[in-house]
UniProtKB/TrEMBL annotation:
This is Perosamine synthetase. The modification N6-(pyridoxal phosphate)lysine is found at residue 182. GO terms for molecular function: pyridoxal phosphate binding; transaminase activity. It holds the Pfam family DegT_DnrJ_EryC1. Keywords: Pyridoxal phosphate. Its cofactor is pyridoxal 5'-phosphate. The keyword Nucleotidyltransferase does not apply. InterPro entries: DegT/StrS_aminotransferase (IPR000653), PyrdxlP-dep_Trfase (IPR015424), PyrdxlP-dep_Trfase_major (IPR015421), PyrdxlP-dep_Trfase_small (IPR015422). One of its GO terms (biological process) is polysaccharide biosynthetic process. The active site is at residue 182. Belongs to the DegT/DnrJ/EryC1 family.
Length: 384
């Protein structure tokens, strides 16, 4: 029996046709699909604009660069995230200041964020863990009176809302990932949304090696039609037309994906409500999450045992995430275990159950049965 994954894409004939059509066109990379995908993303997220980029890590790098992060600046990051939320700012010479998460949502704690902000803080990055938006109104207060911008790492949460406002319109900068396990996919891909058009422009420039072609901004505007200048260094983080076509096709089904994910979450919540030995994810009344993960807590020190038992039974459970400051690259810089106790204690119990739009009710029932059996200590490996 094939391992049931914890996440996977949904690609249908419509997506394949959208990509094929672009492969037969004149443009493979930066062409009309990029502009259209960016416009549609801006529409869905309520941002002033979106820059499509080559992956979610690049999106973070671009967003930090657009925010002007440089050597000596501080960036506040919660440790309950994928390492890229922090490492992409390190790439610009920033110092990461870890701030703990809230017990219920596992998103950046506004009080911890406020305590971490200094005169050197350039960006405070929240992460919409599992697809549940962070508390952006409270986080906005945490950065008030400082020069810091608020960033949302929304790799999990595109399609979600906070107090009815869409993810993408909640922070100064919002980053997306379109990796296959995320809420919509372009294979590899990502986006940077911003509320200020100037930040969108800076993001697009960094993505395109820093090149400037706007005549009114050139230092030598009369050089000729071929002329461009680089004022600030950038990288090539472009997302090709071929993949933007896939993104546009996927975006048409985002609502469907989010609805199916929510239905599966409701089924898990109901089926697992009375199960001893686990705690289920919490939804705040002000959030309409775009559930990317279904993260449970396995109590009584049994996470390793339950992980092994479910894997042996063909259920591809996952752990999201290893606290970022525990990675040796951070430990070697002097970051210490124990500094973010809420995130660290959550990590020691965390287990992600399979969640993706094409997960069938029958397969989900199998996950539920295997988890129940494992908790009762009766899990058997699948027959070899
Ligand atoms: C997936 C992810 C990223 C990185 O995205 P890639 O497209 O894999 O580079 C960043 N942050 C979080 C929270 C993620 O889950």
């Amino acid at each position: 029996m094939a391992m049931l994954p914890y996440g996977r894409q949904s690609v249908i004939d419509e997506d394949v046709e959208a990509v094929s059509a672009v492969l037969r066109s004149d443009w493979l990379t930066t062409g009309p699909q990029v502009d259209a995908f960016e416009a549609e993303l801006a529409e869905v997220t309520g941002a002033a604009g979106v820059a499509a980029v080559s992956n979610g890590t690049a999106a973070l790098h671009v967003a930090y660069a657009a925010a002007g992060v440089g050597p000596g600046d501080e960036v506040v990051v919660p440790p309950m995230t994928f390492v890229a939320t922090a490492s992409s700012a390190i790439a610009l010479g920033a110092k990461i200041v870890f701030a703990d998460v809230e017990e219920e949502t596992l998103c950046l704690d506004p009080a911890a964020a406020a305590a971490a902000v200094t005169s050197r803080t350039r960006v405070v990055s929240a992460v919409d863990y599992a697809g549940h938006p962070a508390d952006y109104d409270a986080l906005r207060k945490s950065v008030e009176g400082s020069d810091a911008l608020l960033l949302a790492d929304a790799a999990h949460s595109i399609g979600g809302t906070y107090h009815g406002r869409p993810v993408g319109s909640l922070a100064d900068l919002t980053t997306f990932s379109f990796f296959p396990t995320k809420n919509l996919t372009t294979g590899e891909g990502g986006g940077v949304a911003a509320l200020d058009p100037e930040l969108v422009k800076r993001a697009r420039r960094f993505r395109n090696i820093g090149t400037i072609r706007e005549r009114d901004e050139l230092r030598r505007p009369d050089e000729g039609g071929w002329f461009y200048e680089v004022h600030e260094f950038g990288l090539n983080y472009r997302l090709p037309d071929v993949l933007c076509a896939l993104g546009r096709s996927q975006l048409r089904r985002l609502g469907e994906f989010v609805t199916r994910r929510a239905a599966l979450v409701a089924r898990y919540n109901e089926a697992l409500a009375d199960l001893d030995g686990v705690r289920l994810p919490v939804r705040q009344p002000w959030a309409d999450p775009a559930w990317h993960l279904y993260p449970i807590r396995v109590l009584d020190g049994r996470r390793r045992e339950i992980y092994d038992a479910m894997r042996a039974a063909g259920i591809g459970v996952q752990v999201n995430y290893i606290p970022v400051h525990w990675h040796p690259a951070f430990a070697d810089l002097g970051y210490r275990r124990g500094s973010c106790p809420v995130a660290e204690s959550f990590y020691s119990e965390q287990l992600s159950l399979p969640l993706y739009p094409t997960l069938s009710d029958a397969d989900q029932d199998r996950v539920i049965d295997v988890l129940g059996a494992a908790l009762r200590g009766r899990a058997r490996p699948a027959a070899a």
